[in-house]
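Checklist before submission:
- one chain only
- standard amino acids only
- sequence pasted in full

Submission:
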Amino acid sequence: MTALTLSTAAVPGLRADAIVIGVAKGTASGSGTPVVAPGAEAVDHAYDGGLAGVLETLGASGAEGEVTKLPAPSGFKAPLVVAVGLGAQPEKDSDYAPDALRKAAGVAARALAGAKKAAFALPLTDAADAGAVAEGTLLGAYSFDAYKDKAGDAKDSKNGKNGKAPLAEAVLLGGKPRDRAYKAALERATAVAEELNRARDLINTPPNDLDPEAFAAVAQAAAKEHGIKVQVLDEKALTKGGYGGILGVGAGSASGPRLVKLSYTSSRAKKHLAFVGKGITYDSGGISLKPAGHNETMKCDMSGAAAVFAAVVAAARLGLDVNVTGWLALAENMPSGSATRPGDVLRMYSGKTVEVLNTDAEGRLVLADALWAASQEKPDAIVDVATLTGAMMLALGNRTFGIMANDDAFRTAVHEAAEEVGEPAWPMPLPEHLRKGMDSATADIANMGERMGGGLVAGLFLREFVGEGITWAHLDIAGPAFNEGGPFGYTPKGGTGTAVRTLVRLAELTASGDLA
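Returned file contents:
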């Protein structure tokens, strides 16, 4: 992880590999030319106030995600200036949105891979801005190289790996090193980003090295480190407990399923949240095998469980005054002679029976058991997270997750929390007329319904397994959980860690009493 420090040092005399400044699109003035953002005054002064013109000559516009590099002015200890786009200029210099700062810092950190030290002179008006820059820097600097050649090559002989090492140190200029609020903002950013990056590592790990048992072991180690109580149910315990959904999905794999319960408790807590994550460590589709071209990224089908795991650990590290229980429903969905078949009927942990019409609709089966288990503890609210349906990707694209709930006010609160932390989300309905499509002549319910509105049908299925009177929300993160395109903002290629920050924010709001 990149080391973070706060500094009030003058920019010209600071020894670093680069100075990061912000540049915005000058839409507020109507000029359309790039505008140098606050924090870069010393650099602009060294250019006799002409830095914006120099950047425009170099092709900079201030657009989000844009990076322009130029030599540092004479007399500066750092040799390089990196100007990163902030997007549209706000009406007031103090109104740069936290996510604009977060994205700019992430882009800069990625652009400076291989550097030892960079000074970030982005707009900081308060501790929240410092936290946003810190978080963006740590998330943008992320790289997954556990499987890269350790022998080294011509690309990076110093690092000894295929590629450049992440930025080693980031100095946040304009921050107040002795101010409690600023220090707390950095501590929060570090805890959340480290756990989110741990989730990314899990998502990116090949399924031959991360089966349900291995995932459970990672959770056990983290729980021990951070004082979290952990319970792991293996095949024997799942069979004894009657967890037919999890067992049914895992029946075709040589790697047995697991249900992991992580419990963080606070002596000052007045509320209890339960987070439930889908953890299909690899999804072949089972007997209803996925077609060619749809299997290659299915290691990411445990992204929901990774997000829940990371959020519980982050809550513990932050010492939040709320009890948080995480449920990781882990299984590998494989075809074999022992696999669940289309037409089979499973008896779930709740006692309900489910006719399995499609074994590739397996996530809802493992979640159903975990949701019912979570409901037995009567939490104040349950939030489940899952890469559940391709239908949600068709509806919302690759960067936005859908939110369904049995309570409109709670759905709104979850949506607002997601937007606040910079995770694009959209509220979705649960139309009652779609429930009839899951009626089964053989069992209490089928795991498939109408094809149109499939993401909503899945939400309706899950609702059947939430305890009566318990507030619940479902996050379908199928689109943004795994980025198959190029990196953008602070989002890398591969596993993204989507929903971690939304869950942490919900826990914070609950702890402070701001979430009813």
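Reviewer check: The CA atoms of residues 510 and 516 lie 7 Å apart.
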